[in-house]
Amino acid sequence: MAKNTIKNDEDQLNRSKTEIVGRLLAYLNPYKFKTFIVIMLMLFVMICGIANPYLLKIAIDNYIQNKDVNGLVYIGIILVVLNLFAMWASKIRWTMISSVTNNILVNIRHELYVHIQKLSFTFFDNRPVGKILARVMGDVNALQNLFNQSIQNLIPELLSLVCVAIVMFVLNVKLAFASILILPLLAIAMLYIETRARKRWDDYRKKRSNLNGFTHEDFSGIKVVQAFAKEDDTEKSFKNFVSELMGSFMKAVKLNDFFWPLVELSWGIGTVVVFYVGYSLVESGDIQVGTLVAFSLYIGMFWRPIMNLSNFYNTLISNFSAADRIFDIMEIDPEIISAENAPEIGKINGEVTFKDVTFAYDEHTKVLNNINFTINPGEKIALVGATGAGKTTIVSLLSRFYDPTSGEILVDGKNIKNVDLESLRRQMGIMLQDTFLFSTSIKENIRYGKLDATDEEVIAAAKAVNAHEFIMKMEKGYDTDVNERGSRLSLGQRQLISFARALLANPRILILDEATSNIDTQTERLVQDGIEKLLEGRTSFVIAHRLSTIRDCDKIMVIGDGVVKESGSHDELIKRRGRYYKLYMAQYGFMNDGA
Ligand SMILES: Nc1ncnc2c1ncn2[C@@H]1O[C@H](COP(=O)(O)OP(=O)(O)OP(=O)(O)O)[C@@H](O)[C@H]1O
């Protein structure tokens, strides 16, 4: 998957028109019956419309010319009743169309959302969140017009066009031919515009996505922007993105503006030709005046659907790219999935083995190179090493957020690639440095670890990690809303809540990635009990730069240059006077010799 950034336009597949229309129309399938009723209602309205000029022709040629008042009244009543029914049918069809299109949009958005949720970390690594949002929200919205118009215009207008053309040919073949003479020229002009317009609309959607990506990132990092007083710079960038968007829109819309005048011009020419031919036919006595009057009305009815269809075509072109962008995402297969019929892993004991594990995030740089180790059930392992050494990568592979480039990771002797992913993740607890809390109450955030936990269980977990006290000091206690990402709380408080959440989840394998880095040493001592409880009886991986927190681990592995440089207990490694010793001395050497 090509990497994308905010400033780069995304890669996009250009599907054929028929493929896009076909795939979009497939969404109508569950609403076949309703769509059928809508089309029938439209047909009825259309037939009423077509009947009007014909009834007028009868009124002129049969009754007005013969001064037959009764016949005229009779025709008048038919006209009124017919048009009242047409009004009623028209009203119902509008309600039904809205219901169908809205349901389809909900379905597409849901399908897209569920699909994106399953995509691997690589997908999210490779594109800004704002651009993903642009597809889920903006691009799906863009389809609304398309669906509205397809149901409303495509089928009924085509039907109407065919029906009017048949009536015209029945009335008079020469006049009918005169009416459609200009159509081939119009079609050629439209095709020419279409090929150019589609590219421009693609460009517009990409620029919109860039702006979305930028705005999302800017607001997410607003504290940094304000702290560095970069508001003016970001405003400049914002203006650039907006002006690129404006430019691409103007370019696209300029071509669109050709459509209407083109159709209107053809309509005008068509009408002149019909009147010219019609006049000579009346002169020569081939047709009566009533036929020409009816024709003059039919010509309007013939061109209106063409106008509407060209409008639909226009909408289609401007929104093809939205559909392309949605399908592009739907076609990305999640890389990390359970193998077919993969068995559940069962209750995990906690033995973890890395066998010749090599990993690279992209083709250029290997992050891990032939990593080998085995951890016994219930052992506490610390991963230490310089920034960027690959510690988080090791635990990400164990959680199967990524798959190794080569080698195997075994839990209780089973390759994690061959077991049901959910059954594995359910038994793993991961606590990261940048704790993520959802914008809901503290209680619900803790309960996220076990959705059916009672309030008592939630409070017990909070007490165990010493979070209860600060929670009770908040104005609404456990019901206090933490705001988006938990911004209402301090980093340390967020970490305590994530401890409680993990304790409640009761995982078999626990990963603490710099999970205590934001807790002050005094509180850390307080939560140490909680952490001990948390780690008890589970295999745990602790990543910590503050080495005092990992002294008691059963094994410490020093990661560097993508390999395990050293491993052993704290005392063994201190005695060895290697890398760990140096790291330890750098932090605590001023106190004693570390032993
Ligand atoms: N999603 C990613 N895409 C590409 N490269 C990545 C990604 N995540 C990490 N890396 C790279 O992989 C290497 C190892 O990163 P990792 O996060 O595992 O280091 P770490 O040892 O946990 O560092 P720290 O102590 O700073 O948390 C780094 O060079 C980093 O730039």
TrEMBL record:
Entries under Gene3D superfamilies matching the protein: ABC transporter type 1, transmembrane domain, P-loop containing nucleotide triphosphate hydrolases
Topology class, membrane: Multi-pass membrane protein
The keyword Metal-binding belongs to this UniProt entry's keyword annotation: no
Domain ABC transmembrane type-1 intervals: 36-318
Gene Ontology terms: cellular component: plasma membrane
Pfam families found in the cross-reference section: ABC_membrane, ABC_tran
Main location: membrane
Domain ABC transporter: 352-586
Keywords: ATP-binding, Membrane, Nucleotide-binding, Transmembrane, Transmembrane helix, Transport
Membrane-crossing residue ranges in chain numbering: 33-52, 72-89, 154-171, 177-195, 258-279, 285-303
GO molecular-function terms, A-Z: ABC-type oligopeptide transporter activity; ATP binding; ATP hydrolysis activity
Keyword field contains Repeat: no
Subcellular location: Cell membrane
Record's protein name: ABC transporter ATP-binding protein
